[in-house]
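Recall the central idea of this unit: under ordinary conditions, the amino acid sequence of a chain determines the structure it adopts. In this exercise we apply that idea directly, starting from the sequence alone.
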Amino acid sequence: MTWIDFYNFLGIKDFIYFISNPSIQDMLFPVKLVFVSFAMFFLAAVVYFMMNSSWLKFKFLEDVTEFFSWQAYGLKEISRRWSKIQKRMDIGAESEYKLAIIEADDFLAEMLGDRDFTGKTPDDLIKNAGSIIVPNMEKVLEARKIRNSIVYDPDFKIDQNQAKNILVIYEAAIKNVGSS
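Accordingly, the structure predicted from this sequence is:
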């Protein structure tokens, strides 16, 4: 049995003649229009959501940015935000020291949350990150206690040297999280 005999045996030839009949094609034209319009709508939706989502930025622009800048993606944003926190230390007011510590703690918690560590509180995030991500975990937890004292005790006093030491702890933790 050759291919042509097999082709005729299955009735494929008759089916193709039937489906390509002009009268059948005229009847199927509205159905074709509906399917083409659905296809165009879904194609437009995919393009719209791709352009408005961060997936394209994450998958494509991250690699390009890292290649041309010779540094990890997002490192410039981390450096900018950290320098803003450190500028509070230059002002010389105790209230600015306190704000710098609070902002550094919030920044660390945000970075850990962005790295998909789970936890309801920043303490849980730090503990779940583990000592590989935050090697100075005990110092960070101690710094968090001081941060909580600043937030909940309005009479809490802190000097510039103590605030700088706490910011050094937070800076090391943020750098470790940012590089992982």
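The chain has two domains: 3-53, 72-179.
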